[in-house]
Amino acid sequence: MSHFNASSPTGQSTAPCFRVVLHRGAHRWGFSWNPGDERELVRQLARLANDPGVPLDHDDVIVVLRQVAREIDPADLADMTRPDAAST
Known about the structure:
There is one protein chain. By secondary structure, the chain is α+β, with helices and mostly antiparallel strands. The chain has one domain (2-87). Helices cover 39% and strands 23% of the residues. The chain has three helices and three strands. It has a three-stranded antiparallel β-sheet, with helices on one face. Helix 1 (38-50) runs antiparallel to helix 2. The longest helix is centred in the last third of the chain and has 14 residues, at 58-71. The protein is globular, with a radius of gyration of 13 Å.
């Protein structure tokens, strides 16, 4: 079973504003990003899920992306889901 938690911007640090942590079995994955970097986050998650040497699978990516979607502006999410979004 996968578990996750997320934190939103605090405005008190220069660190990335959003963070999602996924726990699955013995693995713990932490993903951080700044507003506007969601498209790159999606690219990197896809790269990891497609790497046979990395134990993060596509189901894990879906869990992470659902949490990411809760953290970002709906307009940004709509922009990211355009058919050409992965190539830009």
